[in-house]
Structures are given as structure tokens and as C-alpha cells.
Amino acid sequence: MTSPAPTLNIKIADKSADVTMVFGRLNELAELVGSFERLPEVDFHAPTRTAVLDILLSPRDERGRRIESETVNLHDLTIEDAEAVLDFAKDHLTDFFLGRLEKHLASLKSNGDRLTGVGSSLSGLVPSAS
């Protein structure tokens, strides 16, 4: 799977705007969604959908913090641009969750002998547990 594009260009109130995925935003999205299995909530759960749009479209200061006094009016987005932003988020979340899972599974595989040894040691302690 190829990595999703890092930037998406949309229009907000007829002005061109670039949405760039950086780790801070991706981390906020991952915290919101929680897991790969919950990705459909981005499409089908209105509060999640709104939160995703807010995370990606809110103006930010130089440190990446949302500027609370400035917000994007979602009514300034076309349906197509809003859907593009949601798809952009899902593509990045899918890549992130599956990438982390692949790395986790590779780690388990490469440490299989060590894990088996630990499991054997622990199973021997079961009769002596208090």
C-alpha cells in the first residue's frame, strides 16, 4: 500500500486551502477514532465526523495548537470538499493503524523465541501463586 498524499487542497468559502497531515493531527484523529475497527464512525457518526473536520480544518498557531477564537464554518465547505477531507483522514488513519499493527506483528514474530521462554517461565509459576 502506498502512503497517502501528505497534503490535500480544498476550498473554504471559495478560498484555496491546503490541509497537511502532520503527526500531531494524526495523533488527535487516532485518539478520537480509537482503533481501526471504528473507522466507519468517520463516515456514519455525526459527532465523530464533525470532530474530524474540526481537527483538520481549525486554524493553528505556530506550535500546532488550535486557535480557539478562529473556527471554520462547515457551511463554507462544499459536500465534495468535506467528503475529500473525511477520506483524507480515513486514508491516513488506515495507513497509521495498519502500519502500527504490521510493526507490532513483526516485533512479535522476531521476538517469538523470547516470548515463548517467558510464557514457559510464567506457566511454571501458576501452581505456586498465592
Task: Set out the fold topology.
Elements: E1 7-12, E2 15-20, H1 23-33, H2 41-44, H3 46-57, H4 79-110, H5 112-123
Antiparallel strand pairs: 1-2
Helix pairs in contact: 1-3, 3-4
Within the largest sheet, what's the order of strands? 1-2
Structural class: mainly alpha
* Largest sheet data: 2 strands, antiparallel
* Poorly predicted regions: none
Radius of gyration, taken over Cα atoms and rounded to an integer in Å:
21 Å
Q: What is the chain-wise order of helices and strands?
A: EEHHHHH
Please identify the oligomeric state: single chain
How many helices? The count is: 5
For the secondary structure, the number of strands is: 2
Q: In summary, what is this structure?
A:
The chain is mainly alpha-helical and 130 residues long. It has 5 helices and 2 strands; from the N terminus they run ββααααα.
Describe the structure.
The chain has 130 residues and is mainly alpha-helical. Helix content is 55%, strand content 9%. The chain contains 5 helices and 2 strands. The chain has helices at 23-33, 41-44, 46-57, 79-110, 112-123; strands at residues 7-12, 15-20. The chain has a two-stranded antiparallel sheet. A hairpin with a 2-residue loop joins strand 1 and strand 2. Helix 1 (23-33) packs antiparallel against helix 3 (46-57) and helix 3 (46-57) packs across helix 4 (79-110). The longest helix has 32 residues, at 79-110. The chain is elongated, with a radius of gyration of 21 Å. The model has no long low-confidence stretch (mean pLDDT 89).
